[in-house]
Amino acid sequence: MYERDTIAAISTALGEGAIGIVRMSGGDALVMANQLFKGVNLLTQPSHTIHYGHIVDPESKQIIDEVMVTLLRAPKTYTREDVVEINCHGGIMAVQAILDLCLQMGARLAEPGEFTKRAFLNGRIDLSQAEAVMDLIEAKTNKAMQASMNQLQGSLSKKIRSLRQTMLNTLAQIEVTIDYPEYDDVEEMSLQQLKTTAQAISQEVQHILKQAQSGRLFREGINTVIVGRPNVGKSSLLNRLTGWDKAIVTDIEGTTRDTIEEMVNVRGVPLKLIDTAGIRQTEEVVEKIGVERSRKALEEADLVILILNQAEDLQEVDLELLKASQGKKRIILLNKQDLPSQLDRNALAESSGTATIIETSMLEEAGLDALEDEISNLFFKGQLQSTDINYLLNSRHTQLLKQALAALDEVQSAVAMELPVDLIQIDYTRAWDLLGEITGDSVQDELLNELFSQFCLGK
Ligand SMILES: Nc1nc2c(ncn2[C@@H]2O[C@H](COP(=O)(O)OP(=O)(O)OP(=O)(O)O)[C@@H](O)[C@H]2O)c(=O)[nH]1
Ligand SMILES: [Mg+2]
């Protein structure tokens, strides 16, 4: 284990919470805490115990707060160093005052992510687990949380390690070939083996990437764009789904002038819901810009909710939107079904293809359940159960996996071209290295600093 100074930070969210925690980690954590703590002598207490007492300013002798102190001795701690957690009353004053005292005792203010960084450097967790901690802090819904938990428990690392082990076996085999070039048939064999493993590994990597694509949706929210002509009820839908009046709803066409975004959770599926300006021909400058944005939002959407007003017949713009959303995951709502029907369903059927059509009334809150069912169906059907989202990759992971994939492709084409084994081996080893960077088995210092600095303080 490395020799390190003692760090301290507030590890609960700042604010008026019920309790706040100041956490210290390092060789002097216990001694420092003991100088501030009035109660039992912490230095003689066994590990993993919690003690009641007061934090007292050693200079002014003033009582700062009534606290519970958790005492955790190395190595069975989050950082594998001695850790002390001072649980005090929430609110900024007490927590901040106690942190100040810790710093006065000689602790250093922890950098963002430094506790987790130490956990990594001391070998308690690997890199992808460390990153999962970060995701967990940011996770927006239960399902995203689940994926982070899985990763924390090491599903990605486990997978990558087993892939690398397979690759290592082949590498060893090749070494033999290079050392004993006189055996032609050995070379022939290794080439064959290289090809098969490169292929197999490449498939596995593709599979991880594919699953991660769903993971991304869960972490960042599914880009869901509500489009339609003015006044069909787009803003009303946003308000129904968020449960509050985020967007202004009026009977004036063109009420929404710009896109409005809100995160909502539909049956555990996080949607980044985007209400757009109604699309129509307009000469009005502000509205025109809004309409442009609506079209752009439509292009970038993961899911399109196209609203039609069934109290009117299909119009040019409706048909245009039906066309523009083709090839996207989409749901069509026939809104205002509380009003007499005017819309020609046969004409609609011709332009809507296989899209699911749901009758709704935002006014009477009808059809919303069916809509939620459909959303959950679209994103969970068959392949996508929450327990399947094992890999929640960040962009660093994705990059590395793609680079590894490219290197493996090189291997395969090199084998096809019958290049010498030692040349092919270079690409193969590169793929192996790249995968290793995911778990941190081969990783450089700057990368580590960069990575851990993204954490919030106190983790
Ligand atoms: N009768 C009836 N009226 C509705 C329904 N949904 C929305 N409305 C009304 O239609 C009008 C327009 O609703 P909005 O939600 O503002 O429509 P929008 O699509 O956001 O309109 P723009 O922002 O102008 O593009 C409002 O007066 C709503 O109260 C519905 O299901 N039935
Ligand atoms: Mg609107």
UniProtKB/TrEMBL annotation:
Family matches, as InterPro entries: G_TrmE, GTP-bd, GTP-bd_TrmE_N, GTPase_MnmE, MnmE_dom2, MnmE_helical, P-loop_NTPase, Small_GTP-bd
Binding site for K(+): N231, T250, I252, T255
GO molecular function: GTP binding; GTPase activity; identical protein binding; metal ion binding
GO terms of biological process kind: tRNA methylation; tRNA wobble uridine modification
Keyword match Nucleotide-binding: yes
Amino acids binding GTP: 231-236, 250-256, 275-278
Residues noted as binding Mg(2+) in the record, renumbered to the chain: S235, T256
Primary location group: cytoplasm
Coiled coil: none
Domain TrmE-type G: 221-380
Any single Gene Ontology cellular-component annotation: cytosol
Cofactor binding notes: Binds 1 potassium ion per subunit.
Cofactor(s) listed: K(+)
Family membership noted in the UniProt record: Belongs to the TRAFAC class TrmE-Era-EngA-EngB-Septin-like GTPase superfamily. TrmE GTPase family.
Complexes and interactors: Homodimer. Heterotetramer of two MnmE and two MnmG subunits.
Function comment: Exhibits a very high intrinsic GTPase hydrolysis rate. Involved in the addition of a carboxymethylaminomethyl (cmnm) group at the wobble position (U34) of certain tRNAs, forming tRNA-cmnm(5)s(2)U34.
Record's protein name: tRNA modification GTPase MnmE
